[in-house]
């Protein structure tokens, strides 16, 4: 029997994360736009965010997170056979950030791709890598969420400038006969594109200025309502698929965009707050980096233990949303 076929699960064998050095606090933002620490903390839970240095790129952040995840898994880059990066802020339009990183880590020849699903990027990437492992095409995959979203922030728009930060998180997943990733669920609804988007792209309004004039635009309160409703639905879908109930979940690891959205999802799950991983206060919304940043922090601090059941979920521009149920 083909050994790969017997390995029907993919398991997380290591995680890593990285935040750039520079910290921008809410107090710092008070001198940049008409806002206050009190408004930001009350409406979002964010206290500070990390910002990339000049010249530092998404690939640089991804590399550090990847090296930490590989170290935790006890693997060399050359042992990885599939590389996928969730990002909406690639260094270049092409080559993909995954290709840039692959070459840097000396992994030339393996499949390498980016997936752009905004804040759901890591969950989308994890879903793809999980499928590659479950079909036997891959045995050891490196899955990354990495972003430099602050390069697309309009620092004059207080309604978005306070929300975002930069960072990266990574997970190594390996084929196993033990669970593992139990299921992943990914969805999209392009009809809501105008609620959360960039108005500028390669074919639309591109400007000869740093960043090409790309700026995040968001109708925050409308996004908020759809996010709360949709994340509630995907919790139900994930539990139903696995014949599980809310009581079976040990940890909720949500997208770190807004503490109020996190609390609403936790309430729907009847999860006590001490079983919900919250890191949004430390790094703001880092888009596709947010779930792996939270996951890695909780694993390294010893809060999440082997054998526990984790529910990862995210919601972002597109709209996109997704979840992963994992026996860690
Ligand atoms: N400081 C002070 N006041 C502000 C600020 C600010 N930074 N930003 C907005 N305000 C004001 C508004 O102008 C408005 O004033 P008004 O009543 O005089 O008109 C008031 O605060 C309320 O504004 P709302 O937008 O209604 O505030 P809300 O409570 O909805 O909070 C927020 C805004 C934090 C953006 C919230 O809607 C939110 O988190 N939305 C969801 C974001 C999200 O989850 N995104 C996920 C994906 S992100 C991605 O994919 C890239």
Describe this entry's structure for a reader.
There is one protein chain. The protein is an alpha/beta fold. The protein has two domains: 3-178, Thiolase/Chalcone synthase (Peroxisomal Thiolase, Chain A, domain 1); 182-327, Thiolase/Chalcone synthase (Peroxisomal Thiolase, Chain A, domain 1, 3-Layer(aba) Sandwich), CATH 3.40.47. 32% of the residues lie in helices and 25% in strands. The protein has eleven helices and 13 strands. It has helices spanning 3-6, 26-30, 37-44, 58-73, 97-104, 121-134, 158-161, 220-241, 259-268, 280-283, 290-300; strands spanning 9-18, 22-25, 48-51, 82-86, 111-115, 140-148, 166-176, 181-188, 196-198, 216-218, 251-254, 309-316, 320-327. The strands form four sheets. Strands 1-7-6-4-5 form a five-stranded mixed beta sheet, with helices on both faces. Strands 8-13-12-11 form a four-stranded mixed beta sheet, with helices on both faces. A hairpin with a 3-residue loop joins strand 12 and strand 13. Helix 4 (58-73) crosses helix 5. The longest helix has 22 residues, at 220-241. The chain is globular, with a radius of gyration of 19 Å. The model has no long low-confidence stretch (mean pLDDT 95). Acetyl coenzyme *A is lined by residues 35, 39-40, 43-44, 118-119, 158-159, 162, 196, 220-221, 223-224, 227, 257-258, 261, 285, 287, 315-317.
